[in-house]
């Protein structure tokens, strides 16, 4: 193993939870949850030679704070991502942001929480072919899960227009901290960390283009608990992912057939 960069916890950032995004030139882009000039996280670039550049340091205010999800890149060199905290709302509910190729940050959407919107997006975004972005929130929406909202699946355009596609209600899971998977038919797949039926240890769901949600699997403890990773799919339509475990088993790798 070769360490490309060791974070020092200061202005270069700390705690990079998110997976990386790699461009065609071999540059890596990512986020840190902490560190930076205000200790509210950063967006960084690591070039092929191993040189790290901080593209933006969050303040935790109107620009958002403490990003945990990955960033994605468009054809013009703009980066897009989420922060679970910060924003202009009183709820400290997070934002969707755009970071230009000149490192100018624009907040595209401020999450408001409540019944009409999501709150606290921990996961990053993904594109579709039309330029829409999709993500999840761990709170917000109209559901009631242990006296708190259950979270949402949302769509946001590059102009900032946001639409809530699904609000979890507990019966179909809640607290989705993982990113989404998009298939060729336009259906979204994801996991939830909890599910108010049975043993309440998580679920795998599908959301089709019409907005209809289907729970594909409910975890029961013997097959894993509280999945937090983004799913992947093979050419035959099988889904693969990982789940944690209270032991034994101490976690699982699972496959769900079409």
What does this 3D model show about the protein?
The protein has 258 residues and is mainly β. It has a single domain (21-232), classed as TolB, C-terminal domain (Neuraminidase). It has strands at 21-22, 28-32, 42-46, 52-57, 72-73, 79-83, 95-99, 105-110, 118-119, 126-127, 133-137, 139-140, 152-156, 162-167, 181-182, 188-192, 203-207, 213-218, 232-233, 239-243, 252-256. Strands 1-2-3-4 form a four-stranded antiparallel beta sheet, with no helix packed on it. The protein is globular, with a radius of gyration of 18 Å. The mean pLDDT is 93.
Give a short summary of the structure:
The chain has 258 residues and is mostly beta strands. The protein has strands at 21-22, 28-32, 42-46, 52-57, 72-73, 79-83, 95-99, 105-110, 118-119, 126-127, 133-137, 139-140, 152-156, 162-167, 181-182, 188-192, 203-207, 213-218, 232-233, 239-243, 252-256.
Give the SSE layout.
Elements: E1 21-22, E2 28-32, E3 42-46, E4 52-57, E5 72-73, E6 79-83, E7 95-99, E8 105-110, E9 118-119, E10 126-127, E11 133-137, E12 139-140, E13 152-156, E14 162-167, E15 181-182, E16 188-192, E17 203-207, E18 213-218, E19 232-233, E20 239-243, E21 252-256
Antiparallel strand pairs: 1-2, 2-3, 3-4, 5-6, 6-7, 7-8, 9-12, 10-11, 11-13, 13-14, 15-16, 16-17, 17-18, 19-20, 20-21
